[in-house]
Amino acid sequence: MTQAVATRNPKQVGIAYVLWFFFGVLGVHQFYLGKTGRGLLYLFTLGCLGIGSLIDLFTLPSQVRAVNAKNGVVTV
Fold it and tell me: What does pTM read for this prediction?
């Protein structure tokens, strides 16, 4: 059983993947993770012509873990 202690609401991998699936080329999943600059890049380049969105398919869990660690979310 894992327990999270958070100063902010933790981001969830499942939600990030749902946003990626429906709005990946628009960068909505990047905005969800608080990466506004990357979200704007994806928005104006359609996910870096789809290549950035494809890379996110494989790296999204580690991105979520990094954002949660940065925000002080500790998984016990």
Answer: 0.85
